[in-house]
Amino acid sequence: MGLLSDLTTWAKDFVESAGYVGVFLMVVLENVFPPIPSEAILPLAGFLAGEGRFWLPAVILAATMGAVAGALILYYAAYWFGEARLRWLIRKYGKWFAVSERDLDSANAWFDHHGYKAVFLCRMVPIVRSLVSLPAGLRRMNLVPFIAYTAIGSGLWNSLLIVAGWWLGDNWEDVSHLVDYLDYPMYVAIIGALIWFIWKKKFATKPSDKANSPEPTR
Known about the structure:
mainly alpha
């Protein structure tokens, strides 16, 4: 927990000192390394925009470009490694990135259930917002809709956090607490989608043997 706190503090300091480049790089890192929360970085950028140190539209653009770049890193990692190697890497090193095979299963379930729309929808779901790039890469989703859905979904989520920090001013740190309350229905949705997907795979009705059997001869 201390390491995570130190990383978050470092990320905030980096954004404050590096400006738009810092926003871009931290969002890239947040996509690849989920323990660094965007809820702690982007509201700060919004607050700094409110103080006149950043231009609000440029902050949103930098954050969205960072999200797309981070998503592409994971997309191509899955594209080249394949599912077996990817699962091996998650089992071996996932604890350092706060990622488990269950998280990957959740992302797979969302993608299989919602198709391309999952890339858009999951950008507003904790943890899965990064990991949904993996099933997209595994299934070699067309890059044009992948980038488009990623940019739109990430742009909406980033705008929400940045504008909230800009609006709250000195109380920008409260944004992370407010987002915590939004996370609970998201978790319920993830669990529900996963259960539905498993049920559909295991218990979906199949054509009866009677329908497939040849008609009896007389």
